[in-house]
Specification:
Order of helices and strands: HEHEEHHE
Largest sheet: 4 strands, antiparallel
Low-confidence stretches: 1-26
Distance between the termini: 37 Å
Strand content: 15-25%
Shape: globular
Structural class: alpha+beta
Number of strands: 4
Mean pLDDT: 86
Radius of gyration: 18 Å
């Protein structure tokens, strides 16, 4: 083993506790009241890259400010949904907290301005599907 291999290994080893800490923190926030929200956004033609950029740079930070924690963000790889669908899941402290968070989010000045600016050439989303779910007892805590 040369010095480079040793340094690479040491770098990975030092990152492991940080990664595990994030995973443990996520699970520690899960209680019996926790709910998950699956959201599917059906998009107008040509808006996939634009909405992904908005989520990547600003929208998810606004979610966090209102206690809505992103579990994952996906885009389908196969037709008919590929290139025109954004799927994501949020974790909320409770169903009531989710309702309160969305109410605050909708009128938040930063969100209102971001949506207006980013969609000045046309709306991104044609239809939103939202489903609230409970985690089953045998599921990993996410």
């Amino acid at each position: 083993m040369d010095r480079r291999d040793l340094l690479k290994g040491a770098g990975a080893a030092t990152m492991m506790p940080l990664a595990m800490g994030d995973a443990m923190k996520a699970g520690a926030e899960v209680t019996e009241e926790t709910v998950y929200e699956l959201r599917i956004y059906h998009l107008n033609e040509g808006k996939q890259a634009l909405i992904e950029e908005r989520f990547r740079t600003k929208e998810t930070k606004i979610f966090e400010r209102f206690g809505m924690h992103g579990v994952g963000f996906w885009t389908p790889t196969e037709e008919p949904l590929a290139g025109r669908t954004l799927i994501y899941m949020l974790r909320h402290k409770s169903r009531q907290a989710a309702t309160e968070s969305w109410e605050k989010f909708k009128v938040d000045p930063e969100w209102v301005a971001l949506k207006a600016e980013s969609e000045k050439d046309g709306a991104f989303v044609t239809k939103i599907e939202s489903t609230f779910m409970e985690l089953l007892d045998f599921s990993p805590k996410v």
